[in-house]
Automatic annotation (TrEMBL):
Belongs to the cyclophilin-type PPIase family. Residues 1-27 form the signal peptide. This is Peptidyl-prolyl cis-trans isomerase. The lineage of its organism: Bacteria, Pseudomonadati, Pseudomonadota, Gammaproteobacteria, Chromatiales. Its main location: cytoplasm.
Length: 195
């Protein structure tokens, strides 16, 4: 009888542990996802609100407003990254909300497939533009809270469609007015939505 009771307790404990572990795995996969439907295919991003809460909320705000719909990947550099989210196909820059605080000091690195906020030389100037790293761009990582060390805030990763990113980074580019590395044929983000 005592053995049966111990066996039952062990089974209950194991069941509870497996449920807890399953919920943890489930919670980890419940990060917000955003789908970028482009003229070259679909890219799905998983966002990390636990690592970059203000950045993720800012990005999702633009997504919810439909801000990114009809914008382009306007800067494409092989061996570096693809950047978008701020210009229309005729290279008109869209007005944005106020800049956000730089959250690059979050332990995430600008590895291939990660998504980070673009900004000016001012560390706290990111608004809507983002880029997808196609190489491990360690020189963009946070090193110190000074103008040279702030880095670029990684806030997500491509979880589907990295092949689309690879096709984008291979397109011919050129100059368009003051802008360099602009795809000769616009690569449009037709629709950007939460999954």
């Amino acid at each position: 009888m005592r053995m049966r009771s111990m066996f039952r307790r062990l089974l209950v404990t194991l069941a509870l542990l497996s449920t807890t572990t399953g919920n943890q795995v489930m919670a980890e996969s419940e990060n917000p996802r955003v789908q970028l439907e482009t003229t070259m295919g679909t890219i799905v991003l998983e966002l990390y609100p636990d690592k970059a809460p203000e950045t993720v909320e800012n990005f999702l705000g633009y997504v919810r407003e439909g801000f990114y719909d009809g914008t382009i990947f306007h800067r494409v550099i092989p061996g570096f990254m693809v950047q978008g989210g701020g210009f229309t196909p005729d290279m008109q820059q869209k007005p944005t909300h106020d800049p956000i605080r730089n959250e690059a000091n979050n332990g995430l690195s600008n590895e291939p497939g990660t998504v980070a906020m673009a900004r000016t030389p001012n560390p706290h100037s990111a608004t809507a533009q983002f880029f997808i790293n196609v190489e491990h761009n360690r020189f963009l990582d946070f090193t110190a809270e000074n103008p040279q060390g702030w880095g670029y805030a990684v806030f997500g990763r491509v979880v589907e469609g990295m092949d689309v990113v690879e096709r984008i980074v291979a397109v011919p580019t050129g100059n368009h007015g003051m802008h360099q590395d602009v795809p000769r044929e616009p690569i449009v983000l037709d629709r950007v939505s939460e999954q």
